[in-house]
Amino acid sequence: MKAIQILMDEDLLSELDRRAKRVGRDRSKLVRDAVGRFLAAEDAKDKERRVIEAYERQPLTREELDWLEASEWPKD
Fold first, then answer.
1. In angstroms, how far is CA 56 from the centroid of its own chain?
2. 23: Cβ–Cβ under 8 A, 6 or more apart, which residues?
3. Cβ contacts of 25-33, under 8 Å, gap ≥ 24
4. Which residues of 14-44 are buried (b: 16+ CB within 10 A; e: fewer)?
5. How far apart are CA 20 and CA 38, in angstroms?
6. pLDDT of residue 74
7. Which of 42, 48, 51, 74 has the smallest C-beta neighbourhood within 10 Å, fewest atoms?
8. How many CB atoms lie within 10 A of CB 7?
9. 24: which DSSP letter?
10. Helices (H), the chain
């Protein structure tokens, strides 16, 4: 791992420390987890955007739409 420096508002830092103590993790672990979740969410948004753009370039055919409308989702 590599150490970094970030600037953080004192109130935000205090809240981060309170919550870290409450869940039994250190500040760095919470920040790493938060950044990881942010990056994963951005990746998911990017994938969704690419799928939408692909369907805009090549929309489903009438036959494909009919099949989708006729299909049933599996029962859980």
1. 23
2. 30
3. 31/6
4. eeeeeebeeeeeeeeeeeeeeeeeeeeeeee
5. 18
6. 66
7. 74
8. 5
9. T
10. 10-23, 27-57, 62-70
Q: Check: CB of residue 30 under 8 Å from CB of residue 20.
A: yes
pTM for the whole thing?
0.71
Q: Is residue 21 pLDDT above 70, yes or no?
A: yes
* φ, ψ for residue 33, nearest 5 deg: -60, -45
- The CA–CA distances, whole Å, from 64 to 32, 41, 61, 70, 72 equal 43, 30, 5, 10, 14
> Is pLDDT above 90 for 69?
no
Q: CB–CB of 35/29 below 8 Å?
A: no
**58: which DSSP letter?**
S
Biggest CA–CA distance in the chain, Å, is 59
Whole-number Å distance between alpha carbons of 2 and 4: 6
CB 16 within 8 A of CB 27: yes
